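Fold this sequence, please.
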Amino acid sequence: MTSKIIVNTIEADAGISSVTFNDTISGNVTGNINSSGTSTFNVITGVSTIGVTTIHVTGINNINVPNAGSLSYRNLLINGGMKISQRGITTSYTTSGSYDRYTLDRWEVGARVQSFEYTVTQEFEGPVAIGSSHSAKINIDAVTSESGSSNLQFQQIIESQFVQHLKYGTSSAEPLALSFYVKSNKTGTYVAQLLQYSGTDSSSYSAFREFTVDTTDTWERKTLTYTGNTVGFIRNTIEAGLALIFNLHAGPDDQLAASTATAANDWTTSSTLWKSTTNQTNLADTINNYIQFSGVQLEVGTKHSEFEVVPYPIELSLCQRYYERHDFTASQYIASSISHNTGTGARFSFPFLTRKRSTDPTVTFSGTYLGYPPNESVTLTGSNDNDTAARIDVSRTTSYSAGTGVLILAESGAYAEVEDEL
């Protein structure tokens, strides 16, 4: 036998601001739930929201939802899932002094002062928690000790015009939530640095957060929060505006006291370019030390929402604003050139797949190319670029009269690059 209680109104006594239910209410609630303040429910099941003006929730189906910014395209980073790697899946580097090299799309390894030897690979495995099948791996190929102001970092630079909504330099500056998955054989403390740019190419402000790799060879999710910078603005251009830097090595001259560097309101001035803390782990102290990253997300607010998976074609197009690569097959016809005057020169137009960041990208043709007729070797050089296409100058041996057409063929292994990175 069941029981039921039917009431018209439940309200607090005079002078009491709330009504509290100390146990679970099950079944259906019919009618209106009215509140003049904020009502908190741990779980709401089967509630219709028809006619409700505003509902504030912190999670749906046990999944965090953002508390600021948009619900889609909220990740300020591109290729945080490490799916795109137009340059190839394995690249080895030996550096000396200042040296920055792009690896997976939009991700760059930076080295300073000392020599470093490392290999960057796109791995076809990632954290199961987000269903990832890709990650970026940095493997140490030679030992480098901490000395002076030496640095080794894995970073992404964000175009400044795309972070104006952070409202930095105002009292309404937005906080940022960083989440990512990391795996390494080298446990210890690492530092995630935000580097902000104002009116010049040099840094204006930095903020630091430490994170620890606790267990070897295991994917771990890390969540960090940064306050908004109310003091310094971010320049509004097509140049660098904000950088996320994972510090993997820092010399003693570039190590700040952890208590100062990671303070709650910690945006410090330009002297903090390429810095870390005194707790920094040296990934480069042993050959074959490695670190992997995947599911990297930087979003507006203080909530660390689930990693947003962007459809591959859209992510690729976003990457191609800064870099695109064309890999040609043997004997592939890639263009039809025209002799612009009598002689050994010719020209053709090379349209880009995506509008580039600037009107002066670098266009490079590598490998062997032939002009037909008469099937002779030719040299291709980018010229007169803009943000949508480039004029390619063809240099050959045979002289032709003006207006003569010559087909351009690629040999096996030939490729073209359009680069407009920050």
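The longest strand covers residues 389-400. The helical segments are 258-261, 312-320.
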